[in-house]
Design goal:
Blueprint: E1 2-6, H1 8-11, E2 16-19, E3 24-28, H2 33-59
Parallel strand pairs: 1-3
Antiparallel strand pairs: 2-3
The structure holds zinc ion (ZN).
Residues 42, 46 line the site of zinc ion.
Length: 60
């Protein structure tokens, strides 16, 4: 999974975002280190959610 740190103008008002395909996370580079770590974990959950949803859809 790709992780990219971008300027706050690109993501404002969000702290980060996640894209499912291809798996990619963007995080604001101006955030304090602890916040970046938190946002990264949060965005990873979004990707896991999407992946499990996709699996469920394929089973049906
Ligand atoms: Zn979120």
């Amino acid at each position: 999974m790709k992780i990219k740190y971008v300027s706050k103008e690109k993501l404002f008002p969000a702290f980060g975002d996640a894209t499912e395909i291809p798996p990619k996370i963007r995080i604001r580079k101006d955030l304090p280190k602890v916040v970046k770590r938190f946002v990264l974990e949060h965005e990873k959950y979004h990707i896991k959610d999407w992946q499990s949803l996709t699996k469920k859809r394929q089973k049906v």
